[in-house]
Design a protein that fits this description.
The protein has about 180 residues and is an alpha+beta fold. Helix content is about 50%, strand content about 20%.
């Protein structure tokens, strides 16, 4: 029985990493193609023309799009109106929010939107998150942008200025997080 050498194991690790990277790229490309189809259908509807095929007829059935609440839908529409490609793709649960949120992909980045049944609950949980952020350390804190508008809390963990401007325009100024 022959045993693998260190060089063989390194080659195997490189192959595995390459396969994983290609699979990740494939999933991203799949989502982007689906988003492009949706935007072309929305654009044709907005322009008053009738699309030749319905979006349901051309979209893959397993594309991970999710339903959103009224405020989240309004936010997505506002970002699209501002020229950003925004698509809600999945549900998400986070310990510091009591409701299930939505992951919204915007121009290759994403943010989380949490929609509450009333503004008071949204304000309370945004405040709780804000206070707990003051006790945390790390690079994520410098990239955290928290927004509150009516019953919608949005958390963007990124640095893209186009997304920040879009969120500022749609939701107002972000809530300042405490700095240590």
């Amino acid at each position: 029985m022959a045993y693998a050498t260190g060089a063989d194991l390194n080659k195997l690790k490189i192959r595995q990493a390459l396969i994983l990277a290609l699979m990740s790229f494939g999933v991203l490309a799949y989502v982007m193609v689906g988003a492009r189809i949706i935007f072309s259908r929305i654009s044709s509807l907005d322009s008053g023309s009738t699309p030749k095929a319905s979006a349901a007829a051309v979209l893959p059935v397993d594309l991970p799009l999710v339903d959103v609440g009224q405020r989240t839908g309004d936010l997505v529409a506002s970002l699209r109106y501002g020229g950003l490609n925004a698509v809600p793709i999945s549900a998400i649960s986070r310990d510091f929010f009591s409701v299930i949120g939505r992951v919204i992909v915007v121009n290759g980045d994403n943010f989380m939107a949490f929609e509450y049944s009333n503004p008071a609950d949204a304000e309370k949980e945004a405040g709780t998150f804000r206070e707990s952020a003051g006790t945390r350390e790390g690079a994520w804190k410098r990239k955290s942008h928290l927004y509150l508008k009516d019953n919608l809390v949005v958390l963007y963990l990124g640095v893209r200025k186009d997304i920040q401007i879009g969120l500022d325009t749609a939701l107002g100024a972000e809530i300042a997080l405490p700095q240590k």
